[in-house]
Amino acid sequence: MSPFGVYVHVPFCAHRCDYCAFATYADRDHLMDDYVDAVLEEIEWARRDGLEIATSVFFGGGTPSRLAPERLLAILDAIPRTDDAEVTVECNPEDASVERLAAYRRGGVNRMSFGVQSTQPAVLADLGRRHGTMAHVEVAHAVHEVGFDTWNMDLIVGSRAETLLDVERTLDDLLSLEFAPPHISCYALTPEPGTPLGQDPTRHPDEDETADAYDLVGRVLESHGYVWEEISNWARPGHECRHNHVYWEQDDYVGFGSAAHSHRQGRRFWNVRTPERFIAMVRDGLRPLGGEENLDEHTKRFEHDSLALRTSRGVPIEAFASLDEIAHLVRVRDGRVTLAANGRLLANQVIVRLRSAE
Ligand code: SF4
Description:
By secondary structure, the protein is α/β, with parallel strands linked by helices.
């Protein structure tokens, strides 16, 4: 059966982190009930149109754990999925109670993801994160007690408040857990336009320090049995995120909820950005379409190559006219080109050399 992913966007957060540019809101909890009803309606319409059976479902945001578990599970129940579908919920570490996770698990969720970011107080404070420095321990215990086999923790490197020692300590803290996360994502902090971080150049990450921190993360994780999968993702064998592969391999997926993106055979489309508009349009019986584009063959080829190059699959050597100017950023093995460790954060410099970028 072909992979088919379903993404559900939950646009609510307890507070706005000042580096975040996602379509999420800290002042609209009063919309939650109407929002869930609208998402259920949107799924119902899709089912009437022959919604495929999902092999993976991902609740992201925003903070899906802001929803009452029974409301989130009502959405999950409405999504047709295979018996062994991967079902992931992103969860704020502060929401990771045993009761909540147990409710998720009973309801069919089988993978959790937590935005821990760091275990160092100065870094958490600089990122504007509110959870404590022991969140990773509490989360790991709750996950284990409830019995999830697979789960993820997110890290962020690049805060101006972070030293390499902080990164080392964070990794030590995670990897010395009795039940360490089998999947770890690590993102480089990016000053997005329009965010408080973006508007304050004194807090912008130093590129060299961020590269050193990212490099350290890769080296430590890979020496502890994690396999590099994609620029920001490492997994122990058997713990890869199936839903990520849907995106990386250009499979079809559909997104429900405000700002959710979908892809079907080269057509990309997305919903209106705010929950208010989304709810209002669905109530009026209108598809909440915000925009769409059809990818021509050339764009499809370029996206295919650039996504593959970001992963450990890489691309055939023929995808490049020449490697001369990027030889120090890539590795060539068995006729395929992959990013070298020092080329991962500089992937864009390699991607622009693809033949399909011409
Ligand atoms: S919790 Fe996540 S989605 Fe919400 S504001 Fe912070 S970074 Fe953005």
